[in-house]
Design brief:
It is built from 8 helices and 21 strands. By secondary structure, it is α+β, with helices and mostly antiparallel strands. It is globular, with a radius of gyration of 20 Å. Its cofactor is FAD.
Length: 354
Amino acid sequence: MTYDVAVVGAGAMGSAAAWALAAAGREVVVLEQFTLGHERGGSHGATRLYRAAVDDAEIAALTERARPLWRQLEDESGGTLLEETGGIDHGMSDTAVDVFRTLHAATGSVLPAAEAAERWPGFRFETPVLFQPRSGRLYADRAVHALQVVAGGAGVEFRVQSPVRALRTRDGLVELDVPGGAVRAQHVVVAAGPWTPKLVDGLVSLPPFTVTQEQPRFFAPLSDELVWPSFVHHGPTSYGLYEPGSGVKVGLHGTGPVVDPDTRDFQPEPTRDASLLRYVEEWYPGLDPTRSTAISCLYDNTPTADFVIDRAGPITVAAGFSGQGFKFVPLVGAFVRDLVTGAAGAPDRFRFQR
């Protein structure tokens, strides 16, 4: 059987692409090397931050373009995926604060450190705090499952335990080698996270990827009365949010060891883990650094931290999300759909070569 589109990877981005392509009338198969909802890549886990960039106008605008698509997915799946709990940034330069005032004058506010500490005593602040009330948290596992359910309802076929060994073009089609024989499609979308470069080697010219194992922790709050917006601290760059039932997740962004996604051990690297514990003790008076649980995920990083969403002939790639892509998931699906159908391209900053 020949499909219109074969999608490699059933994580968040691959599932979103399948949803969008099926809605556009394409016959789609998704090939996943593990099981649906596996914990080997970067899409698993209960929650992710949703926030507009405070000092990048293009990325802030893309975040707002994603918001109605999240609401559409909620409508189609019947579940809550995005909760607006508010979000804060601090530790930024005076210049960045001024940019924030310009970009977010209608929706955000700048609070003095003392006022912010009174409102959110679980944090320590030394600089003005940038508050965005429409930021919040996404329910990640729930969102990926919702994408797969609505895509399946639209006719998408999901094949698990189907690792793609190789891609090649032949007679105007793309052939994908999987156990049991080749799958053929008019077009292939590779959304395989850190496995992407190996799959498209020799077919697509990607920027260099670095794969890191990030190791945040969930910390126990000292009081149930404390309020926890989603947060980003820009010195050092760290992030986190409150996850019901788990505690407050805190991570040092992009600091994990370089790993091979097929052989990593999922164990926190002791020196980096100790740095995180010291950081939490210094900056979060509302958390108990002695009561925490380590977790692990993968980042597939590009040199600029810009994503890769582009097409070369019958191959479209959506990868390199550098730990910052989840809030854009349904929008990435729409970008991939438009690339495959020829309706439009993705933003220039996401091209293979710029």
